[in-house]
Design goal:
Elements lengths: L21 H22 L5 H17 L7 H10 L10 H13 L18 H6 L3 H17 L5 H14 L5 H17 L17 H9 L9 H36 L2 H8 L3 H11 L4 E2 H8 L3 H13 L3 E4 L9 E4 L23
Antiparallel strand pairs: 1-3, 2-3
Helix pairs in contact: 1-10, 2-4, 2-10, 2-12, 3-4, 6-7, 7-8, 7-10, 9-10, 12-14
Protein backbone atom coordinates (compact mmCIF):
# COMPACT_ATOMS: atom_id res chain seq x y z
CA UNK A 1 0.00 0.00 0.00
CA UNK A 2 3.02 2.27 0.49
CA UNK A 3 3.90 5.01 -1.99
CA UNK A 4 6.08 4.31 -5.01
CA UNK A 5 6.65 7.99 -5.78
CA UNK A 6 9.80 9.79 -4.50
CA UNK A 7 9.53 11.67 -1.24
CA UNK A 8 10.20 15.37 -0.86
CA UNK A 9 11.13 17.17 2.34
CA UNK A 10 8.12 19.40 3.01
CA UNK A 11 7.90 22.54 5.06
CA UNK A 12 6.88 21.72 8.59
CA UNK A 13 3.68 23.50 9.60
CA UNK A 14 5.33 25.87 12.06
CA UNK A 15 7.82 26.92 9.35
CA UNK A 16 5.06 28.26 7.11
CA UNK A 17 4.43 32.02 7.20
CA UNK A 18 0.67 32.54 7.16
CA UNK A 19 -0.90 35.83 6.15
CA UNK A 20 -4.60 35.18 5.93
CA UNK A 21 -6.42 37.34 3.39
CA UNK A 22 -10.13 38.15 3.28
CA UNK A 23 -10.94 35.01 1.30
CA UNK A 24 -9.22 32.76 3.86
CA UNK A 25 -10.95 34.52 6.75
CA UNK A 26 -14.33 34.21 5.04
CA UNK A 27 -13.81 30.49 4.40
CA UNK A 28 -12.63 30.06 8.00
CA UNK A 29 -15.79 31.71 9.29
CA UNK A 30 -17.99 29.42 7.16
CA UNK A 31 -16.06 26.32 8.26
CA UNK A 32 -16.26 27.33 11.93
CA UNK A 33 -20.04 27.80 11.74
CA UNK A 34 -20.46 24.42 10.03
CA UNK A 35 -18.38 22.72 12.73
CA UNK A 36 -20.47 24.45 15.38
CA UNK A 37 -23.66 23.04 13.88
CA UNK A 38 -22.11 19.58 13.75
CA UNK A 39 -21.05 19.83 17.38
CA UNK A 40 -24.57 20.85 18.36
CA UNK A 41 -26.09 17.87 16.58
CA UNK A 42 -23.49 15.53 18.09
CA UNK A 43 -24.04 16.83 21.65
CA UNK A 44 -27.78 16.32 21.36
CA UNK A 45 -27.23 12.64 20.61
CA UNK A 46 -26.17 10.89 23.81
CA UNK A 47 -24.24 8.77 24.44
CA UNK A 48 -21.77 10.13 21.90
CA UNK A 49 -20.51 6.65 20.99
CA UNK A 50 -23.27 6.45 18.37
CA UNK A 51 -22.14 9.70 16.78
CA UNK A 52 -18.49 8.69 16.80
CA UNK A 53 -19.29 5.41 15.06
CA UNK A 54 -21.35 7.17 12.39
CA UNK A 55 -18.79 9.92 11.78
CA UNK A 56 -15.85 7.50 11.74
CA UNK A 57 -17.68 5.27 9.26
CA UNK A 58 -18.32 8.25 7.00
CA UNK A 59 -14.69 9.39 7.18
CA UNK A 60 -13.19 5.96 6.54
CA UNK A 61 -15.38 5.33 3.49
CA UNK A 62 -15.02 8.80 1.99
CA UNK A 63 -11.24 8.84 2.57
CA UNK A 64 -10.97 6.03 0.03
CA UNK A 65 -13.56 7.52 -2.32
CA UNK A 66 -11.73 10.86 -2.32
CA UNK A 67 -8.82 9.14 -4.07
CA UNK A 68 -11.11 8.28 -6.96
CA UNK A 69 -11.36 4.63 -5.93
CA UNK A 70 -14.57 2.63 -6.16
CA UNK A 71 -15.86 1.02 -2.99
CA UNK A 72 -19.43 -0.05 -2.38
CA UNK A 73 -20.75 0.36 1.16
CA UNK A 74 -21.70 -3.31 1.16
CA UNK A 75 -18.16 -4.39 0.29
CA UNK A 76 -16.83 -2.15 3.05
CA UNK A 77 -19.29 -3.70 5.51
CA UNK A 78 -18.32 -7.23 4.54
CA UNK A 79 -14.61 -6.56 5.00
CA UNK A 80 -14.91 -4.59 8.24
CA UNK A 81 -16.79 -7.23 10.21
CA UNK A 82 -14.62 -10.03 8.81
CA UNK A 83 -11.31 -8.38 9.68
CA UNK A 84 -9.27 -10.23 12.30
CA UNK A 85 -6.42 -7.74 12.52
CA UNK A 86 -6.12 -4.06 11.55
CA UNK A 87 -2.36 -4.20 11.18
CA UNK A 88 -0.31 -4.92 8.12
CA UNK A 89 -0.44 -3.47 4.63
CA UNK A 90 -3.93 -2.85 3.20
CA UNK A 91 -4.30 -4.57 -0.15
CA UNK A 92 -7.44 -3.00 -1.60
CA UNK A 93 -10.03 -0.29 -1.07
CA UNK A 94 -12.11 -2.31 1.38
CA UNK A 95 -9.15 -3.26 3.58
CA UNK A 96 -7.91 0.34 3.57
CA UNK A 97 -11.31 1.63 4.69
CA UNK A 98 -11.43 -1.10 7.34
CA UNK A 99 -8.01 -0.07 8.63
CA UNK A 100 -9.09 3.57 8.78
CA UNK A 101 -12.34 2.81 10.60
CA UNK A 102 -10.50 0.65 13.12
CA UNK A 103 -8.08 3.49 13.70
CA UNK A 104 -10.77 6.12 14.28
CA UNK A 105 -12.76 3.86 16.61
CA UNK A 106 -9.70 2.85 18.63
CA UNK A 107 -10.14 -0.86 17.89
CA UNK A 108 -7.41 -3.44 18.48
CA UNK A 109 -4.47 -1.17 19.16
CA UNK A 110 -5.60 2.07 17.55
CA UNK A 111 -6.80 3.70 20.76
CA UNK A 112 -3.78 6.03 20.95
CA UNK A 113 -5.47 8.25 18.37
CA UNK A 114 -8.06 9.44 20.86
CA UNK A 115 -5.68 10.02 23.76
CA UNK A 116 -2.64 11.81 22.38
CA UNK A 117 -2.29 14.29 19.51
CA UNK A 118 0.56 12.47 17.84
CA UNK A 119 -1.29 9.19 18.18
CA UNK A 120 -2.91 10.27 14.94
CA UNK A 121 0.51 10.19 13.31
CA UNK A 122 2.28 7.41 15.16
CA UNK A 123 0.02 4.51 14.26
CA UNK A 124 0.20 1.39 12.18
CA UNK A 125 -1.55 2.93 9.21
CA UNK A 126 1.11 5.59 8.79
CA UNK A 127 3.86 3.09 9.59
CA UNK A 128 3.00 0.97 6.56
CA UNK A 129 2.84 4.12 4.45
CA UNK A 130 6.37 4.93 5.54
CA UNK A 131 6.72 8.68 5.90
CA UNK A 132 10.24 10.15 5.48
CA UNK A 133 12.40 10.10 8.65
CA UNK A 134 12.84 13.86 8.91
CA UNK A 135 9.10 14.42 8.81
CA UNK A 136 8.44 11.70 11.36
CA UNK A 137 11.09 12.80 13.85
CA UNK A 138 10.73 16.58 13.63
CA UNK A 139 6.98 16.46 13.11
CA UNK A 140 6.39 14.15 16.06
CA UNK A 141 8.65 16.22 18.31
CA UNK A 142 7.15 19.61 17.58
CA UNK A 143 3.54 18.83 16.74
CA UNK A 144 1.82 18.56 20.17
CA UNK A 145 2.93 21.94 21.54
CA UNK A 146 2.39 23.72 18.25
CA UNK A 147 -1.09 22.29 17.75
CA UNK A 148 -2.09 23.23 21.28
CA UNK A 149 -0.79 26.81 21.22
CA UNK A 150 0.91 27.70 17.95
CA UNK A 151 1.20 31.32 16.73
CA UNK A 152 -1.41 30.73 14.02
CA UNK A 153 -4.52 31.93 15.82
CA UNK A 154 -7.03 29.35 14.64
CA UNK A 155 -6.88 25.70 15.67
CA UNK A 156 -8.61 24.82 12.40
CA UNK A 157 -5.82 26.47 10.40
CA UNK A 158 -3.12 24.77 12.49
CA UNK A 159 -4.67 21.35 11.88
CA UNK A 160 -4.94 22.07 8.16
CA UNK A 161 -1.30 23.17 7.94
CA UNK A 162 -0.23 19.97 9.72
CA UNK A 163 -2.29 17.90 7.28
CA UNK A 164 -0.74 19.81 4.37
CA UNK A 165 2.75 19.02 5.64
CA UNK A 166 2.06 15.28 5.80
CA UNK A 167 0.47 15.29 2.34
CA UNK A 168 3.35 17.27 0.86
CA UNK A 169 5.88 14.60 1.84
CA UNK A 170 4.67 12.56 -1.15
CA UNK A 171 2.00 14.60 -2.94
CA UNK A 172 1.29 12.02 -5.65
CA UNK A 173 0.79 9.09 -3.28
CA UNK A 174 -2.81 8.00 -2.58
CA UNK A 175 -1.72 6.25 0.62
CA UNK A 176 -0.01 9.35 2.01
CA UNK A 177 -3.05 11.43 1.03
CA UNK A 178 -5.31 9.09 2.98
CA UNK A 179 -2.94 9.08 5.93
CA UNK A 180 -2.88 12.88 5.98
CA UNK A 181 -6.66 13.14 5.92
CA UNK A 182 -7.02 10.39 8.54
CA UNK A 183 -4.81 12.37 10.91
CA UNK A 184 -6.76 15.62 10.47
CA UNK A 185 -9.72 15.00 12.84
CA UNK A 186 -7.39 14.12 15.69
CA UNK A 187 -5.02 17.02 15.02
CA UNK A 188 -8.06 19.30 14.89
CA UNK A 189 -9.13 18.04 18.30
CA UNK A 190 -5.61 18.52 19.68
CA UNK A 191 -5.63 22.08 18.31
CA UNK A 192 -8.93 22.77 20.11
CA UNK A 193 -10.59 23.36 16.75
CA UNK A 194 -13.47 20.93 17.30
CA UNK A 195 -14.93 18.68 19.97
CA UNK A 196 -16.23 16.22 17.41
CA UNK A 197 -14.70 14.07 14.67
CA UNK A 198 -14.94 16.15 11.47
CA UNK A 199 -14.87 13.73 8.49
CA UNK A 200 -12.86 16.02 6.23
CA UNK A 201 -12.52 13.45 3.44
CA UNK A 202 -16.20 13.92 2.58
CA UNK A 203 -15.32 17.44 1.49
CA UNK A 204 -12.78 16.16 -1.03
CA UNK A 205 -14.94 13.50 -2.72
CA UNK A 206 -15.35 14.82 -6.30
CA UNK A 207 -13.08 17.75 -5.42
CA UNK A 208 -9.76 16.27 -6.51
CA UNK A 209 -8.39 19.62 -7.72
CA UNK A 210 -8.87 21.06 -4.25
CA UNK A 211 -6.92 18.19 -2.72
CA UNK A 212 -4.06 18.75 -5.16
CA UNK A 213 -3.79 22.34 -3.94
CA UNK A 214 -3.61 21.10 -0.36
CA UNK A 215 -1.08 18.36 -1.09
CA UNK A 216 1.32 20.46 -3.18
CA UNK A 217 1.39 23.83 -1.43
CA UNK A 218 4.25 22.85 0.92
CA UNK A 219 5.98 20.32 -1.34
CA UNK A 220 8.67 22.61 -2.75
CA UNK A 221 11.33 22.48 -4.05
CA UNK A 222 11.06 26.27 -3.97
CA UNK A 223 10.08 28.16 -0.81
CA UNK A 224 6.35 28.07 -0.27
CA UNK A 225 4.43 30.81 -2.00
CA UNK A 226 2.04 32.76 0.29
CA UNK A 227 -0.56 32.92 -2.46
CA UNK A 228 -0.47 29.16 -3.00
CA UNK A 229 -0.64 28.56 0.74
CA UNK A 230 -3.74 30.74 0.99
CA UNK A 231 -5.35 28.95 -1.97
CA UNK A 232 -4.67 25.62 -0.26
CA UNK A 233 -6.08 26.89 3.04
CA UNK A 234 -9.26 28.04 1.31
CA UNK A 235 -9.60 24.69 -0.48
CA UNK A 236 -9.20 22.81 2.80
CA UNK A 237 -11.56 25.12 4.70
CA UNK A 238 -14.24 24.64 2.09
CA UNK A 239 -13.73 20.89 2.38
CA UNK A 240 -14.14 21.15 6.14
CA UNK A 241 -17.37 23.10 5.65
CA UNK A 242 -18.73 20.62 3.11
CA UNK A 243 -17.81 17.73 5.39
CA UNK A 244 -19.36 19.28 8.50
CA UNK A 245 -22.61 20.14 6.72
CA UNK A 246 -22.89 16.62 5.29
CA UNK A 247 -22.05 15.00 8.63
CA UNK A 248 -24.62 17.12 10.46
CA UNK A 249 -27.29 15.91 8.08
CA UNK A 250 -26.21 12.29 8.46
CA UNK A 251 -26.32 12.47 12.26
CA UNK A 252 -29.81 13.88 12.04
CA UNK A 253 -30.77 11.01 9.75
CA UNK A 254 -29.40 8.56 12.31
CA UNK A 255 -31.36 10.16 15.13
CA UNK A 256 -34.70 10.09 13.35
CA UNK A 257 -34.47 6.98 11.20
CA UNK A 258 -36.04 4.89 13.98
CA UNK A 259 -39.29 6.74 13.36
CA UNK A 260 -39.32 5.77 9.71
CA UNK A 261 -37.80 2.28 9.54
CA UNK A 262 -39.60 0.60 12.45
CA UNK A 263 -43.10 -0.77 12.15
CA UNK A 264 -45.58 0.24 14.87
CA UNK A 265 -45.17 -3.16 16.54
CA UNK A 266 -41.37 -2.91 16.43
CA UNK A 267 -41.46 0.65 17.75
CA UNK A 268 -43.65 -0.32 20.69
CA UNK A 269 -41.24 -3.09 21.66
CA UNK A 270 -38.17 -0.91 21.02
CA UNK A 271 -39.35 1.87 23.31
CA UNK A 272 -39.67 -0.55 26.22
CA UNK A 273 -36.51 -2.57 25.54
CA UNK A 274 -33.59 -2.72 27.98
CA UNK A 275 -31.11 0.18 27.79
CA UNK A 276 -28.30 -2.23 26.87
CA UNK A 277 -30.39 -3.56 23.98
CA UNK A 278 -31.10 -0.05 22.73
CA UNK A 279 -27.41 0.82 22.98
CA UNK A 280 -26.39 -2.20 20.92
CA UNK A 281 -29.14 -1.54 18.35
CA UNK A 282 -28.13 2.06 17.80
CA UNK A 283 -24.46 1.16 17.61
CA UNK A 284 -25.16 -1.42 14.92
CA UNK A 285 -27.24 1.12 13.01
CA UNK A 286 -24.32 3.60 13.00
CA UNK A 287 -21.79 1.14 11.53
CA UNK A 288 -21.55 -0.60 8.15
CA UNK A 289 -21.51 -3.91 10.07
CA UNK A 290 -20.07 -5.33 13.28
CA UNK A 291 -18.76 -8.58 14.66
CA UNK A 292 -19.38 -9.78 18.20
CA UNK A 293 -15.76 -8.98 19.10
CA UNK A 294 -16.13 -5.43 17.77
CA UNK A 295 -19.32 -4.96 19.79
CA UNK A 296 -17.40 -6.18 22.84
CA UNK A 297 -14.79 -3.45 22.35
CA UNK A 298 -17.18 -0.65 21.49
CA UNK A 299 -19.78 -1.24 24.21
CA UNK A 300 -17.74 -2.57 27.11
CA UNK A 301 -20.62 -4.94 27.85
CA UNK A 302 -20.16 -8.57 28.77
CA UNK A 303 -20.50 -11.13 26.00
CA UNK A 304 -23.65 -12.42 27.69
CA UNK A 305 -25.27 -8.97 27.59
CA UNK A 306 -24.35 -8.48 23.93
CA UNK A 307 -25.62 -11.91 22.94
CA UNK A 308 -28.89 -11.28 24.75
CA UNK A 309 -29.36 -7.95 22.99
CA UNK A 310 -28.52 -9.43 19.58
CA UNK A 311 -30.98 -12.30 20.03
CA UNK A 312 -33.75 -9.88 20.99
CA UNK A 313 -33.04 -7.56 18.07
CA UNK A 314 -32.96 -10.45 15.63
CA UNK A 315 -36.19 -11.89 17.01
CA UNK A 316 -37.96 -8.58 16.41
CA UNK A 317 -36.61 -8.21 12.88
CA UNK A 318 -34.34 -5.23 13.47
CA UNK A 319 -31.02 -6.85 12.54
CA UNK A 320 -29.70 -9.72 10.45
CA UNK A 321 -27.19 -12.11 12.03
CA UNK A 322 -24.66 -14.28 10.23
CA UNK A 323 -23.43 -16.99 12.59
CA UNK A 324 -24.52 -18.60 15.83
CA UNK A 325 -25.22 -16.32 18.79
CA UNK A 326 -23.88 -18.43 21.62
CA UNK A 327 -21.04 -18.10 24.12
CA UNK A 328 -17.87 -16.46 22.85
CA UNK A 329 -18.38 -17.60 19.27
CA UNK A 330 -18.13 -14.83 16.73
CA UNK A 331 -20.88 -13.66 14.40
CA UNK A 332 -21.66 -10.66 12.21
CA UNK A 333 -24.61 -8.30 12.53
CA UNK A 334 -26.06 -5.65 10.23
CA UNK A 335 -29.15 -3.48 10.54
CA UNK A 336 -32.10 -4.80 8.52
CA UNK A 337 -32.76 -1.28 7.23
CA UNK A 338 -29.12 -0.48 6.55
CA UNK A 339 -27.88 3.09 6.66
CA UNK A 340 -25.79 4.21 3.67
CA UNK A 341 -24.31 7.73 3.99
CA UNK A 342 -25.42 10.08 1.20
CA UNK A 343 -21.98 11.52 0.53
CA UNK A 344 -22.89 12.73 -2.97
CA UNK A 345 -25.45 15.09 -1.44
CA UNK A 346 -22.62 17.39 -0.34
CA UNK A 347 -22.68 19.02 -3.78
CA UNK A 348 -26.29 20.15 -3.37
CA UNK A 349 -26.19 22.04 -0.07
CA UNK A 350 -26.74 25.75 -0.79
CA UNK A 351 -24.92 26.78 2.40
CA UNK A 352 -21.58 25.44 1.14
CA UNK A 353 -19.19 28.21 0.16
CA UNK A 354 -17.51 28.16 -3.21
CA UNK A 355 -18.42 26.34 -6.38
CA UNK A 356 -17.73 22.80 -7.54
CA UNK A 357 -14.29 22.50 -9.07
CA UNK A 358 -14.54 18.82 -9.93
Amino acid sequence: MGPTEPYVVPDLPWEVPVTSDAVVLGALSNASRAIGRLEGQWRSWLPSTYGLCALASIEAWSCVLAEGETLRWGAFAKKFSASETPYGRPTNSASTATCLLGFHLGLQGYAAASHHPIGAIRNEFLDVVGLPPRLRSDFDAGLPDWLAAGPVGSGILRAILAMMSVAASCPDSPSVAMAARASFPWMLSAAHGADVLVPISVGFVDYRDDWQKVARALAGPNPCDPGEVNEALVAALRAVERAAVTATFELEVQRYRERTVLTPVQREWFESARPSTLFVARLIAALPSASRKQLDELTGFTTRTINSAVRALEAHGLIAVDGGVRGVGDYVVVAKQRWVPMIAAVNHYPSVSGGHDG
